[in-house]
Every structure is written in structure tokens, then in C-alpha cells.
Amino acid sequence: MMQKAKAEQNGFSVIELLIALTLMALLGTSLLTVIATGSNAFGRIFAEKDGQNEARIALSYVTVKLRQNGARDTVSIVESGSETNVRNVLKIDGTPGDVTDDCYFIYFEEAPDGMGGRLVEKTANTPGVDDPRGAQKIAGIRDFSIAYADEAHAKIRITVTYDSAAAGGADTRETVVALRAAPGPNVS
């Protein structure tokens, strides 16, 4: 009986414990690697979709503004910025020639670190384009450009650049918006 009781009290040997711990460490490391890889992939996908979404917001916003208020005589593209960083600014003037200042500006404002920036809108009654006060953020993007798409200034090309891991750094979206003809005089 004494030998039977002694045999039942035997536990694991040190070698068996080391093997079990090694297997658990390998399984734990594998599990953490899978979780980290999935998390990184999710982060990249989320950042890509966020960049695309900001670009869509910027394009849609400017397109809608041009279609709502975009008669040829109310839209102009003006230059602004410093000598080293000249930017085109979209100016939409609801009543050209009127001094009510019911116009507003849409332009790209670069981030201080030079890595991207934001598309903003300011009204005429806020400080100048170079002054950040009164600027309303539309979208966070890498770059924005606007130019006439034809010689008659009847179409405007809008180009938005956004961060894109899939494209290896940056990708662009572009659209051309046709401006409405100026309304003719009322004939009674």
C-alpha cells in the first residue's frame, strides 16, 4: 500500500513542465502575432477609407457649391498665398458688383508641418485668406488644386490629393464641373 500511495503522489517532472511551458509560449507568441497582424491590417484599411472619405467630402462640397451658386459671372479663381506657396482660391460671389460682401472663398490651408492640411471656407466678412480666423474646415486632405478646365472659363477642374497606403503614399481624385450660364435679363 505504501508503494501505491507513493506512486499517486508523483507530479510532473521538470522536463515535462519545461516542454509544456515551451509549447504554451509558442502558442501564445503565434496568437499575439496573428492579433497584431490583424490589428495592423485593420488600421491600414481604416486609414485608407478615412483618406478616401475626406477626399470625397472635399470634392462633393466644392461640386455642390459650384452647382448651387456657379453661374459663370459669380465664380472666379484668384491667386493667394506667399511668394513661395501661391495657391488658387475659389471665389464665389452671389451678387457680383454688389458691395454687400456676400461672397466666400474655398481654398487649401497647409498644415504647419507641411504634411497635408485642410480644405477650408471663409466668408468675405472674415479676415483675409492668410489669416486662419474664421476659416471653417471642410475636409482634412493632403493637397487641393482648382483651375479652369477650358479657355472659356465655363468649366472648373477640382483635384484632391489624399493619403493612401494602397497607392504607396498619396492618391488623387478629380472632377470637372460645368458652370451655369449667366442668367439673362428679365423680359416683360
Characterise the protein shown here.
With 188 residues, this protein is an alpha+beta fold. The protein has one domain. It is built from 2 helices and 8 strands. It has a 5-stranded antiparallel β-sheet, covered by helices on one side. Strands 6-7-8 form a 3-stranded antiparallel β-sheet, covered by helices on one side. β3 (103-110) and β4 (117-123) form a beta hairpin. The longest helix has 56 residues, at 14-69. The model has no long low-confidence stretch (mean pLDDT 81).
Task: Based on the model shown, name its key terms.
single chain; 188 residues; alpha+beta; five-stranded antiparallel β-sheet; three-stranded antiparallel β-sheet; 2 helices; 8 strands; rod-shaped
Topology record:
Layout lengths: L1 H7 L5 H56 L5 E7 L4 E8 L9 E8 L6 E7 L12 E6 L1 E6 L6 E10 L4 E10 L10
Antiparallel strand pairs: 1-2, 2-3, 3-4, 4-5, 6-7, 7-8
